[in-house]
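pasting for ref
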Amino acid sequence: MNNLKKIILHLVIRIGILVVLLGFVFLFWHFTYDPHKYCDESGHKHVDGGLGMFVILFMITQMFYLGLLIEMIYLFVKKNRILAFANLGFLIISLCIALACMFLIN
């Protein structure tokens, strides 16, 4: 039972870190993005900020997964295999969810 609490706390902290990182980028984009920045009297010249936000969120997610992978290797070396397998399970499940979403979008 103690290991289960340890695993749940470990995963909640990791998921919380990811949510906070993605939330900060979204809030920054939401409050600073102006699609009418380059508009003038002669017409509209909108800029696409959604693509830039997607690229930044994608890069943050990839760096988070790389950090999780490095932590998993460190935990295996440190002989804390339960938390390492929790990281591995989180990686596999989240990547399967991402692949399923990509499949459903196309």
